Amino acid sequence: MKKICITFFAAALLISCGNKDNKGSAAEENKSAAESSKSAATGMTAEQEKGLDLITKSDCLTCHKVADKSTGPAYTEVAKRYAGKPEMVDTLAQKIIKGGSGNWGTVPMIPHPQISEADAKTMVAYILSINQQ
Q: Looking at per-residue confidence, does 124 or 102 come out higher?
């Protein structure tokens, strides 16, 4: 009887610990579903949310506001100026990384070399989508 109980508990222990891959997969599916429902609630795509997150974590909001002119132009004005010009994503991404002046007045935009080109493009894509939401 003792051997049967030990065998039973050992088997139960192995079965309960042996299925870790499926649990991680379920956790990833739950995270993905949560992100999808969050996107649906905000009306933004996952890419737009990532752009907003990158902007929030950077120092962009020091000089830019969504709807009001500050030191730099409002994001709504940038979106309006470059509406329907997808070729500007690369140009504006480089402006974020390298800085520049003259497009929106005399105050120069400081360079942000620590931001990757991919992240800068994601940020620009979010900004250009603002008036479409």
A: 124
